[in-house]
Design brief:
Elements: H1 2-46, H2 48-67, H3 70-78, E1 96-97, H4 99-102, E2 110-111, H5 117-120, E3 123-124, E4 129-130, H6 132-147, H7 150-160, H8 183-187
Antiparallel strand pairs: 1-2, 3-4
């Protein structure tokens, strides 16, 4: 009887250790996965392409704020970091980044291929500031001034933010973003210049 109890306790201890080992492996794998994501985001922000993008955005902002150059406001508001479908960090798919991961100016997630200047560069002075919703106004105004037709202005703004899927919500990029956090729907909408 004593041998059976000792054998049962040994078996229970081995099973307990195996369970503990499995839990440890899962915890370590989860930790390493989150570290890899952070490393890929940090590597992403250190690339020449990212630094050039930020520099171009800051220059367009400065020229718009300082000299009132409408073309620079348009560039600031419509300049995209990467082509649609681009996998800049080379991990095999288009990532969705949390706002703090890429230094977003608002607390909405962004797709890797749907990052524009106004998402990551604060543009403004104490008296003049370009916000996400201001970009809609800048683009509509610039295109209306050029074409003198609000319908054409609306089309030009939509062309500046091409769809990556079957509906307007896909203008945020190729990753999946919850509809309640879709910056396009919140700030631009399906007809940014003409409403509706």
């Amino acid at each position: 009887m004593r041998k059976e109890r000792t054998g049962q306790m040994s078996l229970e201890m081995i099973i307990g250790l195996l369970i503990l080992l499995v839990v440890a492996v899962v915890v370590i794998r989860t930790f390493l996965g989150s570290m890899e994501k952070m490393e890929s985001i940090n590597a992403y922000k250190k690339t020449i392409e990212w630094k050039n993008f930020i520099s171009e955005c800051e220059k367009a902002c400065e020229e718009y704020i300082s000299y009132g150059k409408t073309s620079r406001g348009v560039k600031f508001c419509s300049h995209r970091f990467a082509n649609i479908g681009a996998d800049v960090n080379k991990n095999g798919f288009v990532d969705k980044f949390d706002p703090e991961d890429v230094g977003a100016t608002k607390m909405l997630p962004l797709c890797e291929d749907g990052i524009f200047c106004f998402h990551v560069v604060r543009c403004g002075t104490e008296t003049k500031h370009i916000d996400w919703s201001d970009c809609k106004q800048i683009l509509c105004h610039a295109y209306y001034d050029t074409y003198k037709n609000m319908t054409i202005a609306n089309e030009k703004v939509l062309e500046s933010f091409p769809m990556t899927g079957p509906d307007e919500s896909s203008r945020v990029g190729s990753c999946s973003i919850d509809p309640s956090e879709n910056w396009w729907d919140i700030y631009f909408g399906s007809n940014p210049c003409t409403g509706g």
